[in-house]
Amino acid sequence: MVSSRVKLINESATVSMSNKAAELKAQGKTIYNFGIGEPDFTTPERIIDYSYKLAKEGKTHYTPSAGIMELRQKIADKMKTKNNMDVSAKNVLVTPTKFSLSLALYSIIDPGDEVILPSPYYVSYTDIIKLNEGKAVTTPTDENYEFDFDQMKKIISPKTKVFMLNNPVNPTGKVYSEKSLRQLSDFIIENDLYLISDEIYEDLIYKGKMFSPASIGEMKERTVTLSGFSKSYAMTGWRIGYMVANEDIIKASNKVQQQTLTCAPSVSQYAALDALDDEEDVINMRNIFNKRRERAISLLREIDDISFYEPEGAFYIFPGYGMDKSADKLSMELLDKENVIVTPGDPFGASKHFRISYATSEDVISTGINNIKDYFKKMN
Ligand code: PMP
Questions:
Q1: What domain count does the chain have?
Q2: Are 296 and 176 found together in one domain?
Q3: Ligand 1 atom with least separation from CA of 122
């Protein structure tokens, strides 16, 4: 009954885990959940209040499809001052970040075009590429998650059109240096590719600095930069983000948006407008995430059987292990035996790994990671 295109894509990797967790919760068990990919904070009150006020004033209608002009302008100003990008409101399309991934691909690739994806990668990328009839060509990064240019040169073909980057990276927490990103940009220019740069975790950096490749002169026209409000302002439910690109890509994406979503939710756009006025909440939440990051790292270091890259950004840690067991099995056992939810690594393109999200309370972090430690002890 369903199309072959939809048959090719997978359900979310965490669905069976959440079903199982719901079952255990119903039995009265306490679950230590490291599976969640969103801030556990409520959206800052001032943002909620502002959007409520504007909704009461009647701002509850369709907006221009590319977004309200004031917001597009404010996003362009932010890209100029914080990301060093030479852009104007015409280069901005307001849309949910995840949808912007589809819009960008839909606007750039033809069926069968290839998209280079460094692994480990954000779970949804491979399926979003398939949905847009592209072909994901994965390329492993090295032990520090740096790009392997020798390998990347080998997989370039006449069909290669796009390089897909996420920085800071979900699931590893890697933050790329300006030097690495300049090398990547040289590779992209040499091979005449487009770059889709998903920078949704740009405000959650604890070590190192954000660098946007679109700030490089020759990259400006060939880069689509994506970001949003979900992670920085704890606004996942508002479904609001944006893409920044050359005017042709923005116009093409806007056409697709007009015929699909119409426009991003009006009340969320007003919320976003207010969010950009003040960074204090972002800084407070970042400080809390950083404390949790440090706690999680020091507890995980006590487990001999795992190794991991010390994350510099986002809110994830991605440990690998040696034991001969699939990550699916390990995750199910962690839930069954220790009431701990982690996300198996395979859908991120890395076997024998699991992802921990530390966007949860310090109590959950302490007890949950101790339970993981117990699990590995018992397995030895
Ligand atoms: N990109 C990455 C790397 C993400 O982790 C997420 C959310 N998990 C998204 C995009 C999608 O963001 P949003 O929910 O704001 O659409």
A1: 2
A2: no
A3: 3
